[in-house]
Amino acid sequence: MAKKKTVKKAKKAKSSSKRSKKNGSTPTKEKIVGLAESVVSHIDAEENPSLNVPIRSLSNVSFNTRKKIIEMGENKANRPFFDLGNARRFMQTMLMSSELLKLQDQFKTTSIRDMFYHCKHTIEGTREETFNDQDESDPIIEDLEVTLGSLREELRVFANPDGAMVGPAVIRDRGDEIDLSRMGSGGWAVPSIVEPDVIEFVKCKAKYVLLIEKAAVWARFNEDRFWESDKCMIIHGRGQPPRGVRRLCYRMVHELGLPLYVLVDNDPWGYYIYSVIKQGSINLAFESARMAVPTARFLGMSSYDAAEFDISPSVTIRLNDKDIARAKEIMAYPWFQDRRWQREIKHMLKLGVKLELEALSNKEFSFIADTYVPQKLKKGKWLD
Amino acid sequence: MNEPPPATAHDEAAQLSLAFDNTDTSQAVTASPKKKSSARTNGTSKRSKRASEPVTAEKMASQQREISVSEFFAKNRHLLGFDNKRKSLLTTVKEAVDNSLDACEEARILPDLFVGIEQLSEDRFRVTIRDNGPGIVKAQIPNIFGKLLYGSKFHRLKMCRGQQGIGISAAGMYGLITTGKPLSVISRTSKRAKAHHYKLAIDTKKNRPDIVHDDAVEVDWDHGTEVEIELVASYNKGRQSVDEYLEQTAIVNPHAEITYQPPAGELVVFPRGSDQLPAETREIKPHPHGIELGILMKMLKETGSQKVGAFLKDEFSRVSPTVCKTVCEKSGITPATWVKQVDSQTAERLYQALQEVRIMAPSTDCLAPVGADQLLAGLLKGVKAEFYTASTRSPAVYRGNPFQVEVGLAFGGALATDQLARCIRFANRVPLLYQQSHCAVFKSVAETNWRQYGMQQSNGALPSGPLIVTVHFASVWVPFTSESKEAIADYDEIRKEIGLGLRECGRKLNTFIRRRKRTERESQRRSVFLRYIPEVSKALEAITGRGSDGLREQLMEIATHRTELADRELDDRGNIVRKRRDTLEDEHTVIVERDTPLDVDDSLFEGDDVKRISEKGAKAPRAKGKRSKKKRASKKK
């Protein structure tokens, strides 16, 4: 792995996942070998070999009100091999570890889907597959991330990249300099791994970052060259943004000192996307510290916008039962307890309708880029 | 039924003729012509005024005549079990076999039976049954085989298969009616005597044997009787067939050797499983609580005793001097009262008093149960199950008649898992194949809650699963629901006893099922681990460089150790576990390990393949020495 000097950054990796960049993949490799050796020592002691895996569920996360991020707790699940419920997962974890080690040795990076295929085979003497589908292998990788305290990037695996960015900035991607203001209509595809050793910021004239939920709406902003006129980076993550997009936003906020604005649909799912950007997610709570942006601002759409911008009632959509249930669920999360947020959600429930970003096109194709966003920014009409 | 019981063939006095010479019976069947016509006189004379052709009492009287028992049954042959061709074949074989076994047992001879069925044309069969019993004296042969309701068994209370003296003669009558061929009997009483050969037809009008042929023949056996009946019938295998009947007979009569030649296929031998004849049973006198007023009056009329005290003591069981005194006092007479002076009112008082007084239960040495051991041996011989248990209840009493219930269960193994349990019924060692749902046994099985013993069951039905429930009912008088002797009447006492027996066995079954589930879980667990161990050790080798072979062996060891540990825990955890183990270690429970899945239709009770039955016979010795301490399922694994 080519070594890069790190850009100064507030590296807030969890205590257990301190990364040292000294020499290739050594720390991660050491961790994998250490894990296997502890299992072997159990075997030598004629004990039940077991793994202690931090629990990744709502029961083991808490909202750190000081840091304003979701953090994973200390609870760990003991996964012994000689236990009917765990035997298969234990076997899969061991198998996955040995294959991840090969990635380390060969200095290769691959997708989690690749890993699924790589580890899949029929167990000798049976008709049983080591992995039946990717839904079985992905959680094993996530478990290993938390068990080893290694980031996914350190394990050299990535998920399907998704998301694009343009703006007045120049970056270096694996050594290639890329001018993000000359990316045409598609923009620069955000890779899954955006760590400093892969992506470096060379130059940046932007004043803020605008994260847009939908690719189609992002395309509108790009075509109108909004980033040029307003001096901002525009980025989208196609719905719930993948890790790469989140991590990139984090880096731009922390390393370039830009404020982050989030533009999502006015529905519970939009609220939740914003909250994941801001505080982190339950499933990846262990990554919050290096991905969550507590200063992110919710630019829109708000349930008050319909009145504010005189949007026709005919472009609103009735909330269905699922929407209402989700909205109430979100209202109960500790990180949505802010008075203004409670008011915002209650207002949506009171109106009984949701609003998509595209609804603004009802007025004018470029209403969202020409009027809506600038006006909101100007008036400071955002939530945080 | 009428085969001569006694070892001493000249004990003819014991065989009472019942039919027509007995006034009581004939009155019961038809009223005397005189009485009837006079009773009708008034009614008819009135009506005759309107009727165009008046029917006079005299005219009616000309049509009123006695009905013979034989005629009655010839018309109502379904009452005797001859309702259809298939059943007729079974009933014929059954009656003959029952008689043969009864005769042999009474003469204390180990029965050796031959049953042959020969197909003459599509629906015509010749049934031959030969036994090695004591034989029948020449003079009695025609009455026994050619007269209905003639026999030795009706008038006594003794545990035996036959009851009324209808069966074999009815079979002969059925053959005669359907084919015109008389029944043929050859009997020999000893080596020294020659065998008699009779061909008998029943004169149905007179209920009297009609001797068609009579001579002496040479036979190659020393003593015994051979009956041959030609009849219209049909032969099937499977449920309710002759095959099934013989199989089940062999189960509860392990002391008998039965050779069977089916219409097609090879000779089948049900080998003798035990040289022990059933215990000799004592004949008992009726118990006062088991009689009715009419019977009491009849007994008073027929008794040889002169005084009431002697009558009570001699004719009944369990009437002590104290009981006798109390009863007489209550009914206003003394033990010294002359029997002849007892009028109907006194008799009624006497009857009431007899019912009210507490009397000791009848003695039970009149019963010879099959015994849990033998029942178990029979099941082991006949069914390929995994778990067998049997129990014999202590005797009980219904209506003054002692009876005893035995229950056997077979579970698992090759038995079908997706069907209702099978209920096999026996009464006095005779399999009952028809009218299951009317039988007290069936009702008791269905009303028992098998769910609490680990089985599935819908309300009011038999449990479902690989289970065979066997119930043997032994009594001096089996209360059948009809003359064809197919179902046991539903007396509360009987049902209760059967229920208790079922529950006793059910509890053991429950222990077994639960233990088996546990063992299954355990072995499943082990196999899961064994499956993954190679993967894990390979992965560990790839990471750490430790040899995977060594790791695999170590892991295997831990796996065995851990699962064994679980096994041990179950046994050593304390009293509850130890106690539970003991319940299955009694001598009447057997667990057979069946590692390989069995060819399912190999079960005797499927009755599909006669050939297999003989193979089964050859394996029978397996049944011996079965009380397995070492065979316990969980330990072996």
Model description:
In chain A, α9 (268-279) packs parallel to α12 (321-332) and α12 (321-332) runs antiparallel to α13 (339-351). Chain A starts with 25 loop residues before the first helix and ends in a 5-residue tail after the last helix. Chain A is an alpha/beta fold and 384 residues long. Chain A folds into 2 domains: 23-48 and 83-158, Winged helix-like DNA-binding domain superfamily/Winged helix DNA-binding domain (Arc Repressor Mutant, subunit A, Orthogonal Bundle); 164-379, Dna Topoisomerase Vi A Subunit, Chain: A, domain 2 (3-Layer(aba) Sandwich), CATH 3.40.1360.10. Chain A contains 14 helices and 17 strands. In chain A, a hairpin with a 4-residue loop joins β2 (61-64) and β3. Chain B is of the alpha+beta class. Among the domains of chain B are: 12-16 and 74-235, Histidine kinase-like ATPase, C-terminal domain (Heat Shock Protein 90), CATH 3.30.565; 288-356, Helicase, Ruva Protein, domain 3 (Orthogonal Bundle). In chain B, 39% of the residues lie in helices and 17% in strands. In chain B, the strands form 4 sheets. Chain B has an 8-stranded mixed β-sheet. In chain B, strands 11, 12, 13, 14, 15, 18 and 19 form a 7-stranded mixed β-sheet that branches. Chain B has a two-stranded antiparallel sheet with strand order 1-4. In chain B, β14 and β15 form a beta hairpin. Chain B is globular, with a radius of gyration of 30 Å. Chain A binds chain B through residues 32-33, 35-37, 39-40, 43-44, 46-49, 81-82, 84, 87-88, 90-91, 94-95, 97-98, 101-102, 123-126, 128, 130, and chain B through 524-525, 528-529, 531-532, 534-536, 538-540, 542-544, 546, 551, 554-555, 557-559, 561-562.
